[in-house]
Amino acid sequence: MKAFPAPFLFLLLLSQSYAAPSSLIRLEERDFGEVDDGSTVRQFLLRNANGMTVSVISYGAIITEIQAPDREGNFRNVIAGSQSLDDYLSRFPAAAVIGRFANRIKDGRFKIDGQTYQVTQNARGNHIHGGAKGFAKVNWTADALPASETEAGVIFSYFSKDGEEGYPGNLIATVTYTLNDRNELSLAYTAKTDKPTIVNITNHAYFNLANEGGFEDHILWLNAHQYTLADADLLPTGELAAVSGSPFDFTVPQTIGWRLDQIGEPHPKIYDDNFVIKGGGNKIVVAARVHEPQSGRFMEVRTDQPGVQLYTGNKQGFCLETQHYPDSINHPQFPSPIVRPSKPFTSTTQFVFSVQ
Hints:
Blueprint: E1 27-34, E2 40-47, E3 53-57, E4 63-69, E5 75-77, H1 85-89, E6 97-98, E7 104-105, E8 109-112, E9 115-118, E10 127-128, E11 141-144, E12 151-160, E13 171-180, E14 184-193, E15 197-198, E16 202-203, E17 219-222, E18 224-230, E19 236-242, E20 254-255, E21 272-277, E22 285-291, E23 297-303, E24 307-314, E25 317-323, E26 338-339, E27 345-355
Antiparallel strand pairs: 1-2, 2-3, 3-4, 4-5, 6-16, 7-10, 8-9, 11-12, 12-13, 13-14, 14-27, 15-26, 17-20, 17-22, 18-19, 18-21, 21-24, 22-23, 23-27, 24-25
């Protein structure tokens, strides 16, 4: 099994344009193993002209690695990942695509056009992250995108049958990963259905931009003046609370760990909260910026989704999951996650890397 070549070193200069050498191989593909049904899992390596690389696999449409440079030009994987398929099969797969509905649905129950649907109850009687398997534990169909002079990409698609996990409608979901020479990793989602259903797709990557150590000293800014209040089961109450004067206020950049001790029930000393993105939901806006002072790595998150979940309950890293609000189908005042045959779901999230 051929190993991927190590990325070459480079020093990122934000104002400079990069010309790709004619010999640059932007995309490589290889087998990554087999799953129980005998299908082959494929891995794709995307490379840009700056030496940055992103690896993704067809199982769960998982990002297995993002190699990003520090201010000295040294590369490091900035997400929790593995080069072993067994690691993903034996635990919840980090950096997978989550669907049909990311986050929680109260009692696993909702109505569309007056009809009640019951989906898998896999979290204390509630529904979370698409159910027992969802989109994260299936092998997606994969196709490399045509070669380009400025970017590399791959598209994954999955057919979710009517009734799968209890969801209505046959659904064709896709996610396209694209890495360009501006160090932008783009995740473009689509979903088409033959009957009304709900869709809330995200990626559950755990980030750590440091060369060593944890993420608590990362400096975070969130474009959010409100968050959704939650009950003991982390389900929204329907109320929006102001972040001002609380440990949820990242409108002024703060270290992620500075106020963890101030967070009480229902999740003491852990962020697991949906933030309302200012201006989000209609067009791509900046949702978050993260800076790791020692390495100099800087990540900007852009999205057209209305919310972003900050999660710090795993020491491997922090999550910034762009999304519709949790349980939004049961709160008419929240942005609607209903998708209809006449109106497919589309969404884009971008992770943009640089150094400071």
